[in-house]
Design brief:
Blueprint lengths: L20 H13 L1 H15 L12 H14 L3 H10 L1 H7 L13 H8 L4 H18 L26 H22 L10 H20 L3 H25 L10 H29 L12 E3 L6 E3 L6
Antiparallel strand pairs: 1-2
Helix pairs in contact: 1-3, 2-7, 4-5, 8-9, 8-11, 9-10, 10-11
């Protein structure tokens, strides 16, 4: 520890703060003082992190890496904020054991934090999480046969709920594919290749859907001809987009977030193809779609999927 600093087990953590950082630091303090848990966590960290030779620039100790990695996940922070709290947040620096005492404690370079914290992979974090959850059960003295009771909170999110028709559900499915592709391209540039004009595709599909909606609202003979033209233009764009979406493939080695997003993308791509078929059969071929083959779904603005809407008797 730094000369003159407070020992980690004696650090006073505020209990009335509603910020998410103090409870996390209290958990870190508990892990540090519990030798059994800390040794189990160190045994998982050492094979993953302690692989470099003792040469070159000074790195970080296991405890500092573990605390900063946990703070990054807890706060959903980027490395710039992590660099700031590691050097200027006194409470965090006390838990790290380097708070300013008689002499100034160590300062972390931003690149040093990045190079060390990112060494913790998903599998190691999952194993550490299991150890912490088990220790929490023991701390609360939960029996193995006793059911866990947890408190959850709900919140209101903005949603785009509208009457489900085949053509606007086709647009919703395409819109969700675009949204997920944008997220995937931020994680891996591979998914952004070939989608330089993704905004153009999105605008073109939406414009054709809007034109079709206006044309179908006109019941005159001229409106019917215009509607047929709008249907054909909308389907032509949808067919071309479907062919382009079908060429998107998942990489062999990818993260958990990338895998989850690609699973959602596959679902919306299938829904996109399904509604192309429904629009073609109902509007172009004038086929009556059985009730059980219809989709009564409305899309959400987020990436959490479709929200089911109960069909009416009409």
């Amino acid at each position: 520890m730094t000369l003159g600093c407070t020992p980690i087990e004696q650090v006073q953590i505020p209990t009335k703060s509603r910020d998410e950082l103090p409870p996390f630091l209290r958990a870190m303090q508990y892990i540090y003082t519990n030798k059994e848990i800390s040794e189990q966590i160190y045994s998982l960290l050492e094979p993953v992190i302690c692989t470099k030779q003792s040469t070159g620039r000074p790195g970080m100790d296991l405890w500092s890496i573990f605390v900063l990695a946990g703070a990054r996940l807890c706060l959903n922070a980027d490395y710039d904020r992590l660099h700031h709290i590691a050097n200027y947040d006194n409470l965090v620096r006390q838990i790290l054991g380097i708070h300013d005492g008689i002499v100034r404690g160590r300062d972390f370079n931003r690149q040093t934090i990045i190079d060390n914290v990112h060494l913790l992979d998903d599998n190691t974090l999952r194993e550490i999480n299991c150890i912490i959850v088990q220790s929490g059960h023991q701390l609360l003295k939960k029996k193995e046969t006793e059911a866990l009771r947890i408190k959850v909170d709900s919140f209101v999110t903005e949603a785009n709920v509208h009457f489900p028709t085949d053509y606007n559900l086709l647009w919703d499915s395409g819109r969700k594919c675009f949204d997920i592709l944008k997220h995937l391209s931020k994680i891996n540039n591979y998914y952004g290749s070939g989608w330089r004009k993704i905004k153009s595709w999105q605008g073109k599909l939406k414009n054709k859907m809007t034109s079709l909606s206006k044309a179908l609202s006109n019941k005159s003979n001229k409106g019917t001809e215009r509607a047929n033209m709008a249907i054909m233009e909308f389907l032509c764009v949808a067919w071309a987009l479907s062919d382009k979406l079908s060429k998107v493939r998942q990489l062999n080695m990818c993260s958990l977030e990338e895998t989850a997003l690609f699973q959602q993308f596959t679902y919306y791509r299938d829904m996109f193809d399904k509604h192309i078929d429904l629009v073609d059969r109902r509007l172009m071929q004038d086929e009556k779609i059985p009730h059980e083959k219809k989709s009564f779904l409305s899309s959400s603005l987020g990436l959490n999927g479709f929200v089911k809407v109960k069909p009416t008797s009409q």
